[in-house]
Amino acid sequence: MPEVTATPAPAAQPGNLVDPYRAYNFKLLINNVTEGHFTEVGGLGIKVETISYREAGNNSVVRAIPGRVTYAPVTLRFGLTSSLELWEWLMTAVEGRVSRRNVSIVMLDSSGSAEALRWNLVNAWPQEWYGSPLDAMSRELAVETLVLAHDGIQRETSNVGAAA
User: Fold this and answer.
1) 134-141 LR contacts (CB < 8 Å, sep 24+)
2) Which pairing describes strands 101-108 and 115-130: parallel, antiparallel, or unpaired?
3) CA-to-CA distance for 49 and 64, rounded, in angstroms?
4) From CA 123, how far away is CA 146, in angstroms rounded?
């Protein structure tokens, strides 16, 4: 019986059209439990600082080498509900007892049902919270903001579209 190997999903190349993922198809997992009502996730980022290094020799070439790595805080925006779970998580940090949790931002495919890729935030904890503006003349949803600090980010790609 011939061995079956998985083929990678098509990649964007000249002549190979691949639709990008939609920014609104995502979900958030905290300790592998789906948390609902998130309207926006922002700030996913990594920065590698550069160190200038001058080589010895006649040319005195200055090279840029990688230095310290920092991870940007991630901002979550979500509709205000009666749930106290995120508030209580924040309060542990306020009281000086940081409760680190693994958080995953999961990008869904175009159908909105299957996982396409994910970003894992390692050892995340709430560092800032902003309440929703309250305006009696507005009909907008009340949206809170929670900012998470974390120790690192990992990206995983699902095998969606790969042959079995």
Assistant:
1) 141/39, 141/79, 141/80
2) antiparallel
3) 9
4) 15
Number of domains in the chain: 1
107-118 pLDDT, tens digit per residue, is 888 777 888 899
Enter the tokens of residue 104.
Answer: 């995953």
Domain encompassing residue 101:
26-157
Q: Which long-range contacts (CB under 8 A, 24 or more apart) does 52-59 make?
A: none
Q: Are the CB atoms for 23 and 38 separated by under 8 Å? A: no
Per-residue pLDDT, averaged over 20-45, amounts to 81
pLDDT above 90 covers a percentage of the chain that reads: 44
Among residues 153, 134, 132, 149, which one has the least CA distance to residue 89? 149
Domain CATH for 30: 2.30.110.20
Question: Residue ranges of the alpha helices (H) in 3-151?
Answer: 85-94
